[in-house]
Amino acid sequence: MTTRIGFIGAGNMASALAGGLLARGWRAADISLSDAYPDALLQHAQRGLFTTTDNRALVERSDVLVLAVKPQVMAEVLKPLADIVQARQPLIISIAAGIPGASLERWLGGPLPVVRAMPNTPALVQTGATGLFANIRVSAAQRASAESILGAVGIALWVDSEHLIDAVTAVSGSGPAYFFYVMEAMMVAGRDLGLDEKTARALTLQTALGAAQMAITADVGPDELRRRVTSPGGTTERAIATFDEAGLRDIFARALAACAARGGELATQLGRAE
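^ that's the sequence the OP posted. Answer follows.
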């Protein structure tokens, strides 16, 4: 049976997912997008996807409905669709940060199969990491569909409790920014040591890519890979000792805890709309 997917919102993440699905062999005829701004739909129409500015028309032709609008406008977008969504009972996949599944069901008029997904920005270059949570109304077949859709742009992993989406946000959802921050700091430090900007940038980014690839493909963990690079009494050991003296592990622990806590706060705030 063919599964028809509709995206409400045609921004960067929806566009990345649609492109990933096409690359994985999904038929253009089975992928639809709606957006309030016609210009956002042009590139998709040119690829043969169904596009519309009418969300109800999108729901009418979708078995899976991917909610890809900003969290702040989610309630006003969904409430006018409650009757048609309840009649059709599509699988709902929300990629909007911070909105609990119960709020989505309330705005859409009642019980629905809902999957909350937390993708990250590397999905835009097909290397994303997504955490997924399904409510009790999601069937095994619908779980497989959700995993296939989000897996089109990287890896997709399930968590057992909705509150763990906040932990996913802290680790992978916001995680790219942490690595960008480290890259930025390394480039600045390289320039301070005398490297020109182009060289500091190239060395930093290639090193980040190589280290990630080694960690992904190795049969040991990052801790062992680090030990293998850290010769006793050598240069790397001196740098690692400096990180330890500064309490870098504790800094990361506190930063991720703060990120997760903020996710919980946003869930409370964004889910209040009646």
